[in-house]
Design brief:
Elements (H helix, E strand, L loop, with lengths): L4 H8 L4 H16 L5 E3 L2 E4 L4 H16 L7 E4 L16 H16 L3 E4 L17 E2 L2 H11 L8 H10 L1 E3 L13 E6 L4 H16 L4 E4 L6 H15 L5 E2 L13 E5 H10 L8 E4 L6 H11 L7 E6 L1 H10 L1 H7 L3 E4 L14 E4 L2 H9 L4 E4 L2 H9 L2
Parallel strand pairs: 2-3, 2-5, 3-4, 7-8, 7-10, 8-9, 11-12, 11-14, 12-13, 14-15
Antiparallel strand pairs: 1-6
Helix pairs in contact: 1-2, 2-6, 3-4, 5-8, 7-8, 7-9, 10-12, 10-14
The structure holds FE3-S4 cluster.
């Protein structure tokens, strides 16, 4: 790989140990994937923040990097293992909380913005069309590439941190225009109504094409919330990091010859398959983290009522602050529902605490079953609120 003089100095350690280690990670990846050079990134989002995933080895790595590492570009974090302010209310134990606190302290020392969210685009980490970025959370990667039109590979936690500390990434994969072209057309012959239908569509397409890039036709319109849900779902079920939807997403693509149709019956069966016949004891919203519109809707539906089940509304903390300012948070919290900022029901260590999750997120269904062994009920937001209010 051709490195500039400046990059060589970084690799030699002239800018300190954390930059040196970061350059070693980035150049090693570049060599593996045949990159010819490094490019500048403007935004980073780091996953692997939960102490449950990092463990002590991960914490040690971060502490070492924090000795002399400082971010060169805007960098935010993916959800952590707990709400950093409200962890006791969500039933997190003290020992875990201490370790999670140390993880966040290490990131803070590196000047990472310690807002932990999988929707960085809602809190000001929102690159424009064509910018090269280094994001890690799979749903945000699919959203960033497809909806915003920025360019990122799906980074691991260490490689995203390395990009944050150097402002660089290796030019391969989805940073190159030739790798961003659709390989299969998906003709959708179905009526899509709301976030759950888009989640089901992501599951159906993801399972059919795995990580091929699709050009999806037949989708008439889609809200940000529906695209957020679709991005999470297609990334979860297919490993897809970039998709095109004709008339909706901004990237140009060649039109491939392979075609696959998606029928209404497939969307309906995907939805049915995500529903177990089981008694719900946890209702969760905000996977990916809820938008202001979703928070407002939940507040309207819960106003003046009392929930009968454990209810989590997972959001980025800055959006909760707006919800407080607008009275939405009061309506939600007065009903007995709880906010889960900085975290979510998938990354928080809640295995064994609940039996059946009701959610409007197809991604949540996947992890609730696979990671936490929960049964699942997959319904739209209004129905999930109904379930929360029922005895
Ligand atoms: Fe975000 Fe957690 Fe879902 S990280 S995408 S809310 S699984």
């Amino acid at each position: 790989m051709n490195l500039t003089k400046e990059e060589n100095k970084m690799l030699e350690g002239k800018q300190g140990n954390a930059v040196k280690k970061s350059m070693e990670i980035i150049t090693a990846l570049g060599d593996i994937y045949g990159a010819k050079r490094l490019i500048d990134v403007t935004s980073v989002q780091i996953a692997g923040v939960s102490y449950a995933n990092l463990g002590d080895a991960g914490l040690e790595f971060l502490a070492e990097m924090a000795k002399d590492g400082k971010t060169k570009v805007l960098t935010t974090l993916n959800p952590a293992g707990m709400d950093m302010e409200n962890w006791e209310v969500l039933g997190i134990d003290k020992e875990f909380a201490e370790k999670q606190g140390k993880v966040i302290d290490a990131f803070k020392a590196m000047d990472v913005i310690t807002t932990c969210t999988c929707t960085p685009y809602f809190i000001g980490n929102a690159p424009r069309f064509g910018e090269h970025i280094a994001w890690s959370e799979s749903s945000a990667v699919a959203f960033g590439n497809s909806v915003l039109g920025a360019k990122t590979n799906r980074e691991g936690g260490p490689s995203a941190l390395a990009s944050a500390l150097t402002g660089k990434t290796a030019e391969y994969g989805l940073h190159l225009e030739e790798n961003r072209q659709a390989k299969v057309i998906i003709d959708v012959n179905a009526v899509l109504l709301g976030v759950t239908d888009f989640g089901a569509l992501g599951k159906v397409i993801g399972e059919k094409i795995k990580n091929k890039i699709p050009l999806i036709r037949g989708v008439k319109e889609a809200s940000i919330e529906e695209l957020k849900s679709f991005s999470a779902s297609i990334a979860t079920y297919g490993g897809t990091a970039l998709y095109h939807i004709e008339g909706i997403t901004p990237n140009r693509t060649e039109v491939p010859s392979e075609k696959i149709a998606v029928k209404q019956s497939e969307i309906d069966s995907a939805k049915a398959e995500m529903n177990d016949d089981s008694e719900v004891d946890l209702v969760s919203f905000g996977c990916p983290h809820a938008s202001l519109r979703e928070i407002r809707k939940i507040a309207e539906l819960l106003e003046g009522k009392k929930v009968k089940k454990e209810v989590w509304v997972c959001v980025a903390r800055p959006l909760k602050r707006i919800a407080e300012q607008m009275g939405y948070a009061k309506a939600i919290e007065d009903s007995g529902a709880k906010f889960a900022c900085d975290t979510c029901m998938v990354v928080a260590p809640i295995k064994g605490r609940f039996k059946c999750l009701a959610t409007d997120s197809a991604k949540s269904v996947y992890y609730a079953r696979g990671k936490n062994n929960f049964k699942t009920v997959f319904k739209n937001l209004e129905d999930c609120v109904e379930i929360a209010l029922r005895e």
